[in-house]
Amino acid sequence: NAGVMQNPRHLVRRRGQEARLRCSPMKGHSHVYWYRQLPEEGLKFMVYLQKENIIDESGMPKERFSAEFPKEGPSILRIQQVVRGDSAAYFCASSPPTGTEAFFGQGTRLTVV
Amino acid sequence: AQSVTQPDIHITVSEGASLELRCNYSYGATPYLFWYVQSPGQGLQLLLKYFSGDTLVQGIKGFEAEFKRSQSSFNLRKPSVHWSDAAEYFCAVGAYNQGGKLIFGQGTELSVKP
After folding, report:
1. Nearest CA-CA distance, residue B100 and chain A, Å
2. Cβ contacts (< 8 Å) between A101 and chain B: which residues?
3. Whole-angstrom distance, CA of residue A106 vs CA of residue A11
4. Confidence tier at A99 by pLDDT (50, 70, 90)
5. What is the CA radius of gyration of chain B?
6. Mean pLDDT score of chain A
7. Are B59 and B66 in contact (CB under 8 A)?
8. CB contact under 8 A, A43 and B104
């Protein structure tokens, strides 16, 4: 049973470009969470999704960031017009429908140059 | 406000010595508490969790943690540290109906000296 899969592991973007981060949850998990870890900081919750629904996006920046979890395929975190301050590690976690425990992926390290 | 505080940013212990990492939380609902470990450049691995019942919980790699409601604490302990325990440790709190939506502490970096 594969764990939470994130790709790419490392992503370099120039300022103003778009970044797309993908997350495939564990088999049988229908809930996905995205977190951001800035250098020297803990993880900060961004968004909670179920298939085709955004449940809680209270941690998402109001502009340039969006997330989706389509009926088929991975969850996508999209950052438009990236700026240097978006450089961070982005982690995805998943849980089963009745779960209270989240399983984390290896993360995507985004560097904006 | 809901928060998790890990007072120690960096701790150094000698190999074989005992370890205690502190975690205090502020949370409105009944807390579900977790400790995760993160090695450099890696994801988070769950060490242990507390939902209810016995307040002393055992985890992987010889770690344990004790939930003290009166002190709003969930400290992580290990009787004898190994060099491979060097990593960053995160305490987190969530709620039953929040699934994997967690509030994390800032982390404690553990260094182990020979």
Report:
1. 5
2. 34, 46, 49, 100
3. 13
4. low
5. 13
6. 93
7. no
8. yes
Q: Which of B46, B15, B4 is nearest to B110 (CA)?
A: B15
Give me the DSSP letters along chain A. ----EEE-SEEEE-TT--EEEEEEPPTT--EEEEEEE-TTS-EEEEEEEETTEEEE-TTS-SSSEEEE--SSS-EEEEE-S--GGG-EEEEEEEE-TT----EE---EEEEE-
Cα separation values, B29 from A29, B25, B100, Å: 25, 11, 15
Q: Which of A10-14, A26-30, B62-66 has the lowest mean pLDDT?
A: A26-30
Please give, one letter per residue, the 3-state secondary structure of B10-77: EEEEECCCCEEECCEEECCCCCEEEEEEECCCCCEEEEEEECCCCCEEECHHHCEEEEEHHHCEEEEE
* B-chain residues near A109 (CB < 8 A): 41
Name the residue among B49, B94, B106 with its Cβ closest to that of A42. Answer: B106
